[in-house]
Specification:
Helices cover about 40% and strands about 15% of the residues. The protein has 19 helices and 14 strands. The N and C termini lie far apart (about 175 Å). About 25% of the residues are buried. May be a cell surface adhesion protein.
């Protein structure tokens, strides 16, 4: 009974010793995550067995793995840590001797393809990086003294690696030469320095597959910004539209892309759908006339004497285009007060000078050169203005009432074109009214714009002789035609 307390105390001391060893093993266990593998459970069983047997846990400070991490192969050591392979290599070293082939730092830092290096360091390619590093480790010891002549040996990655010896005593690993044989010798392994990185076939195929997919992928990623082809601005997501609510954009906005892309369709007058800011364009062209000089009379008629400027702005806003044949101040001065005082005369005169087309000096000259004579519609329906080539320019009208293109392209903005002429044009009907009127009420003739005064009506020679004889006999006053 006296030995019972001593036996009990010894048991307690032994139990505390086992608990202390267990605590120290738990403190020294690595905290970084490990990849799931079939050897994890076996390593845990071996560690527990080592603890129970009192042999300790972990690896020795004289291990080849510690020598690798502390060696001058720093690039390879960093890749091993990034690939989370410390636990896997520790398990391999604990089971058997290993042979590690370590590429020099320059081979991994400068000689490696940058695109391939980016591929290895991408998180989604972790398995490829692990396979590449495990391809450099053999689960057997192969020092330089027992280097095989030519044989294939399995690696930790599962693929075979060929070892060969040259006739001159050189050592090769696949396509790489061993530059520093037996660089590190330890009881549990050996490290050989090689000239380049060893790339297994599986990793090379995975890299080629990823590179091919990246090269052919042309689909925009989800959420990529879209550019509106009409405004050349980024599209913004439209707010949700409630059922029955009007559309976000009016229909005619979608029909008229804008003047910079294509002219909008002309829906017709009084439609209320204004595709362009016609009033600003008319204002600009009138200011251009005033600043250009020599067309103040036309600008005064458009703005003050009539409301044609407002009407032109409305037409342009609705989608129409106009070409204005603008008489200069010298031509407008030839018009008489009677011609401008008749009701609607200023409007009719200017309507005859407005062509519902967009024409420039070049387009009109090319047309008359090609066709000889061109008839343009005017806003004074159904009258047309005739254009032909004359003296290397464009001549409008016929006979004495014709005008030359004097100042070409005074104003051109794609919607309104202003061409300066040196005379006022009048329709042919106004020049032929003299043939339909009675002699008692002679009708004035359209003025000739050649700088001469208005021509009087000429009577025939027979009428002049009759009036002269009637004056001799005192009967001249009875004849109305002789007065």
């Amino acid at each position: 009974m006296a030995g019972a307390p001593a036996y009990t105390g010894a048991a307690v001391v032994l139990l505390l010793f086992v608990l202390a060893i267990s605590g120290s093993a738990a403190d020294t266990s690595p905290e970084e995550p490990t990849l799931p593998s079939s050897s994890a459970s076996a390593a845990a069983v071996d560690a527990a067995t080592a603890v129970v047997n009192g042999s300790g846990a972990g690896i020795s400070s004289n291990s080849v793995l510690v020598a690798l991490l502390d060696s001058h192969y720093t690039e390879l050591s960093e890749l091993v840590e990034k690939a989370l392979l410390l636990q896997t290599l520790e398990d391999a070293v604990g089971r058997h001797n290993v042979t590690i082939f370590a590429p020099r730092n320059e081979a991994l830092e400068r000689d490696l393809d940058p695109e391939f290096k980016r591929f290895l360091l991408e998180p989604r390619n972790l398995k490829s990086l692990q396979s590449l590093l495990l391809f450099h480790v053999l689960p057997s010891r192969h020092p330089a003294a027992s280097w095989p002549a030519s044989a294939a040996h399995p690696t930790l990655s599962g693929e075979d690696l060929e070892l060969a010896a040259g006739s001159n005593g050189s050592m090769r690993v696949a396509h790489a030469s061993v530059t520093r044989p037996d660089a590190v010798l330890r009881p549990d392994g050996v490290i050989h320095g090689i000239e380049r990185l060893l790339v297994p076939r599986s990793v090379q195929e995975d890299f080629n597959r990823r590179r091919s997919l990246a090269a052919i992928s042309a689909v925009l990623p989800t959420g990529a910004p879209e550019v509106d082809p009409r405004t050349h601005r980024l599209k913004k997501p439209a707010p949700p539209v409630l059922p029955g609510a009007p559309p976000v954009l009016p229909v005619w906005d979608a029909m008229a892309p804008g003047p910079s892309i294509a002219p909008a369709p002309a829906p017709g007058p009084n439609s209320g759908k204004l595709h362009f800011d016609g009033h600003s364009q008319v204002k600009d062209f009138i200011q251009t006339l005033v600043l250009y000089g020599g067309y103040n009379e036309l600008a005064d008629i458009l703005v003050n004497l009539t409301s044609l400027a407002t009407e032109m702005g409305r037409l342009v806003s609705e989608g129409y285009v106009l070409t204005v044949l603008a008489p200069n101040d010298e031509a407008m001065a030839r018009l008489t007060t009677d011609q401008l005082s008749e009701p609607g005369s200023p409007e009719n005169i200017l309507y005859y000078h407005m062509i519902p087309e967009y024409q420039t000096e070049e387009s009109m000259y090319n047309a008359v050169r090609r066709f000889g004579k061109v008839r343009y519609d005017t806003l004074r329906l159904p009258h047309k203005v005739v254009a032909r080539e004359a003296d290397g320019s464009v001549k409008f009208g016929q006979g004495e009432g014709s005008a030359y293109l004097f100042d070409p392209d005074i104003y051109t903005d794609g919607r309104i074109s202003v061409q300066g002429i040196d005379a006022v044009l009048l329709p042919e009907d106004d020049t032929k009214k003299t043939s339909t009127t009675t002699p008692a009420a002679p009708v004035r003739k359209a003025p000739a714009v050649t700088g001469k005064s208005k021509n009087k009506l000429r009577r025939g020679k027979l009428m002049e002789a009759t009036c002269h004889m009637a004056g001799i006999f005192g009967q001249r006053s009875r004849l109305t035609s002789c007065q």
